[in-house]
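Work Package 3 (structural annotation) set out to generate three-dimensional models for the target panel prioritized at the project kickoff. During this period the team completed the workflow that converts sequence records into discrete structure tokens, so that structures can be stored uniformly alongside our sequence database. As a representative example, we reproduce one entry of 199 residues exactly as it appears in the project archive.
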Amino acid sequence: MPAGEFIPAAERYNVMPAIDRWVILRALERLRHAPAGPAAAPVLAVNLSGNSLSDQSFLEFVVEHAGAPDVARHLCFEITETAAVTNWSNALYFMKELQQRGCRFALDDFGSGLSSFMYLRTLPVDFLKIDGQFVSQVATNPVDRNMVEAICKIGRSLGIATVAECVESESVLEELKRIGVDFVQGYYLARPRPLSELL
């Protein structure tokens, strides 16, 4: 079942913290058994639900299982802009605690909220993931191009790397290169694959 179908129901019935725990344990298991060994394992991006940020025991769980520096440096937690704003104090505390241990954070769907730039200076993120609604038309729509350029400039001035979502054509990729986006993801580069194939 596609994630887009079961996640809304899981959030409605407040079981996302349990699913997030399961995903983290599976990710750590894959990291430990990476063919080249844990030290050479890649950084894994793990999406977190806003519900998990509100669960105090969730932070304790992550610290217990992934708080060691040799493990933490392989994890990048993705939190949507909406979840970060909605759970502001919890998100801030959660991120600072885990960053001290070596975890990284990406602010997902950045640019979709009304207050995107207002709180960015105080939120300790390593990556800004530019919302795909701006990226998909960046090669043809001047407004979207200006929005992506603005996010990149703000990111650079704050020392935050940028990631463009939804890259689905060569023309979009070339425009993003011209703008200076740091990283890209999308079907033009690769289709989703099971983690077991990648590690």
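Residues 126-199 form one domain.
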